[in-house]
Amino acid sequence: QVQLVESGGGLVQAGGSLRLSCAASGRTFSSYAMGWFRQAPGKEREFVAGISWSGASTAYADSAKGRFTISRDNAKNTVYLQMNDLQPEDTAVYYCARSPMSNTPVAGFDSWGQGTQVTVSS
Prior knowledge:
Elements: E1 4-7, E2 10-13, E3 18-24, E4 33-39, E5 46-51, E6 58-60, E7 68-73, E8 78-83, E9 92-99, E10 111-112, E11 116-121
Parallel strand pairs: 2-11
Antiparallel strand pairs: 1-3, 3-8, 4-5, 4-9, 5-6, 7-8, 9-10, 9-11
């Protein structure tokens, strides 16, 4: 069973940046698409960004376009989310997820990490 462990969250001022990492266990990391989701208090979990197994295809929520960048290093079994120009509305618990639909970065996510808190102060 895969384990996904997020790190890199924290408290940052508006306009600041954070880089989230998600380390995956197992030897089949490169067979899966990966994604980042977030859940703010009182709201449903929402898709933020996704990346195909090779990194050739990415997808972003409208709220993330132009500010966030998803990437992956298959040699390190790690997916990243670089977040720039953070705003208070980005405050949430951020989760990474895995999808067996390796070429589709927006669907089929079935395994989740425990999440990392991102708090953006105004």
